[in-house]
Amino acid sequence: MTAPTSPAPASPAPASPVVPLPLGGPVERYRALRLIRGFEELALALVTSGAIPGGIHPYVGQEAVAVGVCSALGPADRLTSTHRGHGHVLARGVDPGRLLAELAGRVDGLNRGRGGSMHAADLALGILGANGIVGAGAPIAVGAAWAARQARSASVAVAFFGDGALNQGVLLESLNLAAMWRLPVVFVCENNGYATTLPAATAVAGSATGRAAAFGIPAEEVDGMDTEAVRAAALRAVERARGGGGPGFLECRTYRYEGHHTMERRMKLRYRTPEEVEAWRAHDPLPRAAALLDPATVAGLDRAVAERLGAAREFALASAHPDPAGALDHLYADGLRPRAGAVA
Known about the structure:
Keywords: Oxidoreductase, Thiamine pyrophosphate. By secondary structure, this protein is of the alpha/beta class. Helices cover 40% and strands 9% of the residues. It has 12 helices and 7 strands.
């Protein structure tokens, strides 16, 4: 009986830039906000047309959290994301064309179309992956922070998660380990008020910051619709973690303007009143960020982002669909070598 042969490696997708998106000034941060909002609006349209199968979890409304936190990170820092992760990876610097191709299941996507909306990753940018399991990015970020400590690196890890993860044991275990080992990790709770359709107030005893306080982790509540407020809080937490002060925790109070998932458009769920949604639209992070710039600059940035997203759409839809013959490729690991000191 002959040994099975390993599948031929797929042709590599275009390499990502190794430098994260520059977010050092109000212009760059507004551009990133506009890019994320426009990307999500484009993705919603492609879901409707059928070009993106299966739907997405829209990030519309929460852009200030991704941009504010990622603006506080350095080139060597790492992050883990969530099922609602497009904003995080775009704010970090992922090419929108490759992300859109991934959502559409095309071979030029970040993961060659195999990950889809909930599993975007780009190790070159320190993006250790979005995750469809609630709270599952937290232990990965803790592991990355521990590895950085072992390597005597100054890098920091960030774990994004929603309010629905606050009752997950894996998050509490991650908080405990990070506190016990004083690891350089920042936990970012995007509290948009709902775990799918369940109001957080009816499911979470105590508070988000109280979870962190129980482990002795410094915690801060911040207006998650204000990019500059999120950035300031993230800078404090990241600098403390990088300097050896241990983990930090941010609760960003935010809101999603769309449903939990695009399937809600078909199901016509009614768990939020129109008045509630409109009240939150008054705090939209994009106009707040635009108010820091002159109108001509804003108009120019809007045009440039629209052009970039147009090119991203063309790139994604021109990319080929994967060959069904390769469906089993990468199902099993191959070519692995044991690390030094391990017994094979």
